[in-house]
Design goal:
By secondary structure, the chain is mostly helical. It is built from 27 helices and seven strands.
């Protein structure tokens, strides 16, 4: 017997259908949305993966990725070598996908970089989905394009650095928060906490920067009683804290003998790694705060701080192309919704992304120093605000010409039910942004106030386009790097602004859409030129500090020659000769050799997956191993060779090597000179 489906109330069906059409159902999407999104994702995939076989593999993280792929101990604890003697100076979560990829596909550079490409494309897709639910398909497409063509995003997604993972997870958290505010359900808020906690595994305390913004927006905007909202926030925060700290607690509970020594700490404490070395020491004058090891020039960058950090000659061209538009959108987006109900979702979106931008800018400006790629985390906020702002300004622009039709242009018949929603969805703007109700069917004397009110706002759209293009000229001016694109941007802007400005009652929709498309293209042309430059190694920055264009220390030191990149399984002639000598003369020792600091060990670890005792960790100053531990390893035949360098500070362990071991001339392993490195044999003095 066939079951008869339950008949739902007409109002419920209509409400659910409207919600689905507005937020998620693909069958109600405008015809252009799917191909447009597919094109954006294809561009993103091409930009992020082009030449992936020669990706910018971070020397330190690349060595750890290969080691983590060959040992479960190294994998979970982030061991720098396969024996897991010492960890990297970060939490390992961001490198787990890279290690899995290398384990699956082999020790290839493209295998290590592939997860970053996937994460970058996923971030674009996810941002499109989130902005679409907030501001409609037009805003979502602009946001996806802006994020895809942000130069620092292109440079970062072609490297092996944790910020790509951090950005993806925080965007997912913002989407979960938006859903929690919209639906009044608890599960999305819990999911938001999980995403933030996982982002903590990628970049530690930086993941928590969004928490004050998320908490404030939820408490202000979410439906329900204040106490209920506060209790839910506490639960979501507890979930975020638990997921954030699970690795720290496991490492803390594991006996020191059963895990690697935690790099960057003076007492092998995971809390010191997170809250000291990667926390307080980056914001205070005390570089050893909370048990941290003092940073060095190699581990601590300086500069790019202060109130103008985002607009200086280095950072500005990386990420700030839509900064004025984003600020304008946030201010007007909140102001335009003044007087609306507390739970207004449009205002909530501007508060989420505007708060994200403000908090990160503030923290970066007061830190001791920032790499350019740190700012990639604010690119989604800038892109979302650019998309949402242009959608807002476009709806106000259209409202000007819907508020009071020209004489003789009144509709001859009543529109069909649903006609208005179909029209805005096809055009891509959202009626939720309408500053005034539609007055086409009202008496003329009542329509005029709406027309007058809208008339004061409709020119914001062309003004915003002109402002964004003018700002692009300012950012590019110090280098004139893409000077050949500047006339293109100006001409497109003139076509767009003049076309929008001069619109009359008889102007066809096709002409208006063409002017709008020209204006939007004008805002994207110059940043796209900088973004594409990241495909050239000459303009891609250093492997440890990726950025786009002719800026940064790497370019200033080598303005006409791209720095050489060494990937996985690609040793230099020197490293190959040294590895052959060590392998040939190895007599069952656990470690292939002991290397002074990661600087000496990195190329060997990337070339060959072997246990290498890294003395001093990344900085060379971490107190592991002690001289006594090193001597014990030599005495028990677990270690024979040691490689020292003049590029890192002397430690008790290196002093022990110099006094107890014999120097091996470079000619013994086929080299004329050993440069800044010296190989020692400790077997003769056991």
């Amino acid at each position: 017997m066939t079951a008869i489906p339950a008949v739902q109330p007409t109002g419920a069906r209509r409400g659910r259908k409207a919600a689905n059409r507005r937020f998620s159902l693909p069958e109600d999407a405008p015809r252009w949305e799917r191909p447009a999104l597919a094109a954006v994702l294809a561009v993103a995939a091409a930009l992020y993966s082009w030449g992936i076989g020669h990706a910018a593999l971070h020397p330190f993280y690349g060595a750890a990725i290969r080691s983590m792929a060959g040992s479960w101990r190294a994998f979970f604890f982030g061991g720098l070598d396969t024996a897991g003697s010492i960890s990297i100076d970060k939490l390992p979560g961001a490198f787990w996908p890279d290690a899995v990829s290398v384990w699956l596909f082999g020790p290839h550079t493209w295998a290590a970089a592939l997860p970053q490409v996937v994460e970058g494309v996923l971030t674009v897709w996810l941002l499109h989905r989130i902005v679409r639910a907030w501001a409609g398909p037009f805003a979502a497409l602009i946001a996806a394009l802006a994020l895809t063509l942000t130069p620092v995003t292109v440079a970062l997604n072609r490297a092996t650095i944790p910020d790509t993972t951090l950005t993806l997870l925080l965007v997912a958290a913002a989407g979960a928060l938006q859903k929690a505010v919209r639906t009044e359900r608890l599960l999305p808020l819990i999911t938001c906490g999980v995403w933030v906690g996982l982002a903590f595994q990628a970049k530690m305390l930086q993941a928590w920067l969004v928490l004050p913004v998320f908490a404030a927006v939820y408490q202000l905007v979410a439906p329900g009683a204040p106490l209920k909202r506060a209790l839910r926030l506490l639960l979501g925060g507890a979930v975020a804290l638990a997921v954030s700290c699970f690795w720290i607690l496991i490492a803390w509970a594991t006996p020191a003998a059963n895990r690697p020594y935690l790099d960057g700490t003076s007492e092998n404490n995971p809390f010191a790694l997170v809250f000291g070395y990667n926390g307080l020491s980056r914001f205070s004058s005390d570089s050893t705060a909370f048990g941290a090891v003092a940073g060095t020039a190699a581990s601590r960058t300086t500069g790019n701080t202060g109130w103008d950090m985002l607009i200086n000659d280095t950072i500005g061209p990386q990420v700030a192309w839509f900064l004025p538009l984003a600020v304008l959108a946030t201010i007007l987006g909140v102001a335009r919704r003044a007087g609306r109900e507390r739970t207004d979702l449009t205002r909530a979106g501007f508060l989420i992304w505007g708060g994200w931008l403000a908090v990160h800018t503030l923290v970066f400006s007061v830190s001791n120093g920032n790499h350019a790629y740190y700012t990639a985390v604010i690119a989604p906020a800038l892109a979302a605000l650019a998309g949402g702002g242009l959608a807002l300004f476009h709806s106000e622009y259209e409202a000007k010409y819907r508020a009071k039709p020209a004489p003789g242009d009144e509709p001859e018949r009543e529109p069909e039910p649903g006609y208005e929603q179909e029209t805005w969805y096809q055009l891509g703007w959202d009626p939720r942004y309408d500053p005034e109700p539609d007055t086409r069917d009202e008496p003329e004397q009542e329509a005029e106030p709406a027309a007058a009110a809208v008339g004061r706002r409709h020119m914001v759209l062309p003004a915003a386009i002109a402002l964004t293009v003018a700002w692009a000229l300012v950012l590019d001016w110090p280098t004139l790097f893409v000077s050949w694109l500047l006339p293109v941007a100006v001409m497109l802007a003139l076509c767009g602004v003049v076309g929008l400005w001069s619109r009359g009652p008889r102007t066809s929709p096709r002409m208006v859409n063409a002017a709008l498309a020209a204006g939007i293209a004008a805002t994207l042309v110059v940043p796209a030129g900088w973004a594409v430059s990241g495909l050239d190694p000459l303009y891609a920055g250093a492997t440890a500090s990726p950025m786009a264009g002719p800026v940064g220390k790497s370019y200033s030191e080598h303005p006409h020659r791209a720095p050489r990149r060494r990937g996985l399984d690609r040793p230099s002639a020197r490293d190959a000769a040294l590895l052959d000598y060590l392998t040939t003369h190895r007599r069952g020792e656990k470690y292939l050799l002991a290397a002074q600091a990661a600087y000496s060990a990195e190329p060997l670890l990337r070339a060959k997956s072997e246990p290498i005792l890294v003395m001093g960790g990344f900085t060379g100053s971490t107190p592991f191993p002690t001289a006594q531990q090193l001597g014990s390893l030599v005495t028990t035949h677990q270690l024979r060779y040691a490689l020292l360098t003049t590029e890192r500070p002397t430690t008790p362990a290196t002093t022990w090597v110099k006094s107890h071991c014999t120097r091996i001339p470079p000619t013994a392993y086929g080299l004329r000179t050993d440069g800044s490195f010296t190989l020692y044999d400790c077997a003769s003095k056991r």
